[in-house]
Design goal:
Helix content: 25-40%
Structural class: alpha+beta
Strand content: 25-35%
Largest sheet: 4 strands, antiparallel
Number of domains: 2
Number of helices: 6
Shape: globular
Number of strands: 10
CATH class of the largest domain: Alpha Beta
Radius of gyration: 19 Å
């Protein structure tokens, strides 16, 4: 683990600037989406914020091509959904309590127990903020995450079953993550017959 003193000042300043919607040089950031296909059926969507769309597209296309992928239409593999994760607390609500409250709000789609404890609520994108605030206030739950994301449609998910595919995907995902313009990466992959260690190599790079 790096100490604070080992982090270059330029990276810290860049991160602060991006949080304010601008680049390290002060230029306004613009959102863009890159859709990526890894033949035959693995789809990715990258959410990007950049001050130069032409440059970012050129750089990221090179990463995709190097990994054996293609830039093409993949959005139909996914649905835009709101996702909120709430931290558990002692004496907190049950799953049925949260579900009953959620269905009272227009736009709530599903409630699940989160693998790390607490609850995960899926919503329509436009209703995410209102539902997140309502659930948090009703049960005094801390919000861990609240974001609009690209969720892979169940019938389009692809199993990762070989070490060769893990290697190709790892090259692609890690290469894209090297660019600070890439704010989020979504993929339609799920663990097939590969080991947990191999799956961890991929899962750490994707947002779902």
């Amino acid at each position: 683990m790096y100490s604070k003193t080992s982090v270059p000042k330029s990276l810290i300043e860049g991160a602060i600037a991006r949080g304010q919607g601008r680049s390290a040089t002060g230029a306004q950031l613009e959102p863009m989406t890159m859709e990526i296909l890894m033949p035959p059926n693995i789809a990715l969507v990258a959410d990007i914020e950049t001050d130069n769309k032409t440059r970012s597209l050129h750089d990221l296309k090179f990463v995709v091509k190097k990994a054996g992928g293609l830039v093409g239409s993949t959005a139909f593999y996914f649905s835009r959904r709101g996702r909120a994760v709430f931290k558990p607390r002692d004496g907190g609500p049950s799953l049925s309590d949260v579900l009953e409250e959620a269905i009272e709000h227009d736009g709530a789609e599903d409630v699940e127990e989160h693998p790390d404890g607490g609850y995960l609520i899926w919503t329509e994108p436009s209703k995410l903020m209102a539902i997140t605030e309502a659930i948090s206030k009703r049960f005094e739950l801390e919000v861990v995450e609240s974001e609009i994301m690209w969720a892979a449609n169940e019938d389009t998910q692809a199993d990762v079953d070989s070490a060769e595919l893990v290697e190709s995907l790892n090259i692609l995902l890690s290469g894209l993550r090297e660019y600070p313009e890439v704010r989020a990466l979504f993929a339609n992959i799920r663990q097939g017959t590969i080991s947990d260690d191999e799956w961890d190599k991929l899962e750490r790079h994707i947002d779902i």
